[in-house]
Specification:
It is built from 7 helices and no strands. The chain is mainly alpha-helical.
Length: about 190
């Protein structure tokens, strides 16, 4: 949250990365995850009222029933969201995916920090087994930790892509539904 607050105050990604001892990529992920969290947590507070003919209302109900949407409010909410490009019919799934992405980012950043500390320990001789300092951090172990960190961060990227593709597909479906509404109104 400190990264989010300071970024909102205009502190650069590079400065934040240096200050918190993480990569600029990690800072961008934190900021992106916070923006997505805010979007996912949006609470409806505005109402929309529109007058339609009886025939238009019957057509609307038919399209909603065919789509398995049980209420006019939900149908209109989906259409409005689709028009804005953010159709997410399963809010629970979207929230779970957002939490999963955030968890992956945290774990990935943690692993990256471990690798950084292991590298520092090797450079300063603390991890060489001499002077009772502890186990040696071999280059192989460092490479494995770095590989794990990359895997975790790449997995988070893949989830982002998956969610993006899902949203794009839902956008196409919403556009088709909007066309159905337009044709039903004719």
């Amino acid at each position: 949250m400190q990264i989010v607050r300071e970024a909102a105050e205009g502190v650069s990604t590079t400065d934040l990365a240096t200050r918190f001892g993480v990569t600029a990529r990690a800072v961008r992920y934190v900021l992106k995850a916070d923006a997505e969290r805010q979007t996912d947590a949006a609470i409806p507070v505005s109402a929309v009222s529109v007058k339609v003919t009886t025939a238009e209302l019957v057509a609307l109900d038919a399209v909603l029933a065919a789509a398995g949407i049980e209420s006019r409010a939900e149908g209109l909410r989906r259409l409005i969201q689709a028009a804005g490009g953010v159709l997410v019919p399963d809010a629970q799934m979207a929230a779970e995916m957002a939490r999963y992405r955030a968890s992956l980012h945290e774990v990935g950043n943690g692993v990256a920090q471990i690798a950084k500390q292991m590298t520092l320990a090797n450079r300063t001789g603390q991890g060489q087994g001499g002077q009772g300092a502890g186990p040696e951090f071999s280059e192989l172990r460092l490479a494995q930790i770095r590989g794990l960190a990359r895997f975790i961060l790449d997995s988070a990227d893949e989830i982002d892509l998956l969610v993006g593709r899902r949203r794009d597909r839902m956008q196409i479906e919403a556009t088709a539904a909007l066309r159905e509404f337009a044709h039903a109104a004719e």
